[in-house]
Amino acid sequence: MSAAEAGGVFRRARGRTLDAFSSEKEREWKGPFYFIQGADPQFGLMKAWSTGNCDSGGDEWKQEIRLTEQAVQAISKLSPKPKFFVLCGDLVHAMPGTPWRKEQTEDLQRVLRTVDSEIPLVLVSGNHDVGNVPTPETIAEFQRTWGDDYFSFWVGGVLFLVLNSQFLYDASMCPALKQAQDQWLDQQLSIAGQRKCQHAIVFQHIPLFLQSIDEDDNYFNLTKLVRKEMADKFSRAGIKAVFSGHYHRNAGGTYQDLDMVVSSAIGCQLGKDTHGLRVVVVTAEKIVHRYYSLDELSEKGIEDDLMDLLKKK
């Protein structure tokens, strides 16, 4: 099943923007709003992780289906509705060209079709979606299935940038594609730098860092050289926050005025966090976020102090 066949909820990013938010009116600040961030549904990882065979062991994903269904149901019954639901990468576990990828993709699309049609989906590419070392072919496959791998959109006067972080990890097989994203990003950051938006926010799969800009390189962050370059670029442009996944645990830190937010997974947990989602409230002055377990969000909804922020004009 292609995204085009998957129903109206798959308003895919095309032409480096998201049609759901194409109106010029979205460039105007109209007051506080909120969105939901999720990460790493990664259909197939829970079985693969439990068997110790992460490369080819993901032949079951019933648990991930159930958890993603719970996430979708919790989001769809929230009132007021979030402006959008962003999934920060690793949509499925099977890498490009490996067994189970088609089946995992079809099952995830089936679940995501049930998101309230008034809540647009924003889909971010992860390493399992385009490969640890992406190629023009794996990028093209992602674009056919889920939409553009990097793009921008406006919501209520806030500029959102979606990046393909694999280009920052290893673009050795697709240097021209990385260069294109770099040039596009510089253009987008110039808009943010001119302060033509109330805030500017970035979504990418791999975090710049997990806790500190100076931490050692590891599988779950970008290298020191790259992270410092990107963090400085974001900070100069006035980016307020970067939201990521990949770590399957909650983490994060700050660099200058930049908030690096690392959210745990809807799917497989690699630490002590719960399967969950992050509620992000955007006010005129600040961005406030809180991680909820799926059970908490399903049973209790959003807490009063966050709801109160939405009432302030």
From TrEMBL:
InterPro entries in the cross-refs: Calcineurin-like_PHP, Metallo-depent_PP-like, MPP_CSTP1, STPP_CPPED1
Catalytic activity field: O-phospho-L-seryl-[protein] + H2O = L-seryl-[protein] + phosphate; O-phospho-L-threonyl-[protein] + H2O = L-threonyl-[protein] + phosphate
Cofactor(s), names only, from the UniProt record: a divalent metal cation
Domain Calcineurin-like phosphoesterase per the UniProt entry, residue ranges: 69-249
GO cellular component: cytoplasm
Major localization class: cytoplasm
Keyword match DNA-binding: no
CDD domains (alphabetical): MPP_CSTP1
EC class of the enzyme, as a word: hydrolase
Gene Ontology terms, MF aspect: metal ion binding; protein serine/threonine phosphatase activity
Classification via Gene3D superfamilies: 3.60.21.10
Keywords: Cytoplasm, Hydrolase, Metal-binding
EC number annotated for this UniProt entry: 3.1.3.16
Cellular compartment(s): Cytoplasm
Family, per entry: Belongs to the metallophosphoesterase superfamily. CPPED1 family.
Stated role: Protein phosphatase that dephosphorylates AKT family kinase specifically at 'Ser-473', blocking cell cycle progression and promoting cell apoptosis. May play an inhibitory role in glucose uptake by adipocytes.
Protein name (Swiss-Prot/TrEMBL): Serine/threonine-protein phosphatase CPPED1
